[in-house]
Structures are given as structure tokens and as C-alpha cells.
Amino acid sequence: MEALLPFALALFGTGLLAGVMAGLLGVGGGIVIVPVLDIVLIAAGVAPEWSMNVAVATSLATIIPTSIASVRAHHARRAIDWPLVRHWGVPIIAGALLGGLLAAQVSSTWLAVLFGAVAAAVALKMYLPLDHLRFAPSPPRGPLGIALGTGIGAISAMMGIGGGTLAVPTLTLTGEPIHRAVATAAVFGLLISVPGTLTYLLASPGLALPHWTAGLVSLPGAALIALATIVTVPIGARIAHALPPRALALAFGVFLSLVAARMLWRAFVA
């Protein structure tokens, strides 16, 4: 039992940090949870070839309560673009189902490459002084909106993240102010995490995983992290609305750079 205490504390601490990031950046916390949980699972004896799959699945499960708390916090500030949610909602859900099915079949190395590459690309966008760059006056509806929503849902489910990592830059490039983009991305996180988690719970990996693992989801890990994130999501939301837009974008970029470096190191060096 004592041997499990450090891992439990690591999971709880991860959840505290993830909750702040979820409220601050609208990222659902997965961008924190997946890299740290990957390390914790390997230390706990999970084979590195499958640790990323379990980390992604468990992360997505924790995003359900995190996203609910984040949506409530942002809705209280009337910051969510609900008409856009209604247009992009179904494509995002469909993409999340597809991404969950795909991620359950690919190796941890490929998941790490995908995670690192996407994080690096988004970080670059956040660093560049492109705050006023717009490809459209407002987020698209119709076929292009369907394609964007499906892509965000699929890639996010494969990465175990709530959608904010992709949705925030996509929305800002198509006319949404950064604070409104962050708030709306929190709703996308809920639409991604529920169907995505379902596909991971039903997965049959065909290998020995730790006790209390359902499909690819570590139930104790999800419970500890989710409990901690709920506590700190409102703190992150308050910080987000107090920061100027450029500072918020730079904070997002710095964090994503660290995550990208760690994931690419894991894939190609470790």
C-alpha cells in the first residue's frame, strides 16, 4: 500500500495542475495529464508500448468532469459561443468516436509523435505575432465547419485532450476573440470526452494491464485526477479572464512547447 502512495500523490498533483490549465486555456487538462500519466504508468510497470494508449484513454475520461466544471465557470461569465456549439457539435462528436477507435489500435510511439507534432505546431502559432491574422470573419458553418469539427474531434480523441489545443487557435484564426475561443473550447471538450471515453472503455487491448483498468481506462487514475481538477478549474478560469489576450496566447505557447519537446523525445530518443 505504501508503494502506491507516491503514485496516488503524483496523480492527484497532476489533476490540480490540469484543472488550472483547463480553466486557463480551455484545454480540458489533457495536455498536462497525458505526458505525466505516461511517466507514472511506466513507473508503475505498464509496458512503454502501451502506456501512451492507457494515458490517452484515462486522460479523456478525466476530461468529462473537468469540462463540466470549466463550462459552468465560463458560462457564468457569458463567454461561450453557443450558436457555434450547435453547428459544430455533431461533427465533433463523430470525430471523437472515430479518433477513439483509431487510437485503440495504434502504438504508443505513433501516439507520442502525433501528440508532439500537434503541440509544436500550435505552440508556433501562439508565439508568432499573429493576433490580428484572420482567415475568416467568423467560424465557418456548412461543409468547412463540418470538416473542422470532425478533425478537431478525431485528433483530440487520439491525443486524449479536450479539444482546446486545436479549437482555440482554429477559432481565433476564424474571428473569435481569444477569451471567447477558450470558453467555447471547454464545451467542445465535453463533446469529445464523452464519446471518446466510451470507445476506450469498450476497447479490448488483449494484454495485461493494471488492476481496475476497464478497456484502456485506468479507473483509479481517472478518479484521482478528476477529483483534483474539479477543485482548481475555477481558479484557472478567473486567471484567464484577468489576463490580456497576448499574455494568454504566450502562456499557451510556452506550455505547449514543453509538452511537444517531451513527447518527441519519448518517441525518438527514449
Would you write up a description of this structure?
With 270 residues, the chain is mostly helical. It has one domain (2-268). Helices cover 76% and strands 1% of the residues. It is built from 10 helices and 2 strands. Strands 1-2 form a two-stranded antiparallel sheet. Helix 5 runs antiparallel to helix 10 (245-268) and helix 7 (164-173) runs antiparallel to helix 8. The longest helix is centred in the first third of the chain and has 29 residues, at 48-76. The protein is globular and about 50 Å long. The two termini are 30 Å apart.
How would you summarize the topology of this molecule?
Elements: H1 5-25, H2 30-43, H3 48-76, H4 82-103, H5 108-127, H6 142-159, H7 164-173, H8 178-201, E1 213-214, E2 217-218, H9 219-242, H10 245-268
Antiparallel strand pairs: 1-2
Helix pairs in contact: 1-2, 1-9, 2-3, 3-5, 3-8, 3-9, 4-6, 4-8, 5-10, 6-8, 7-8
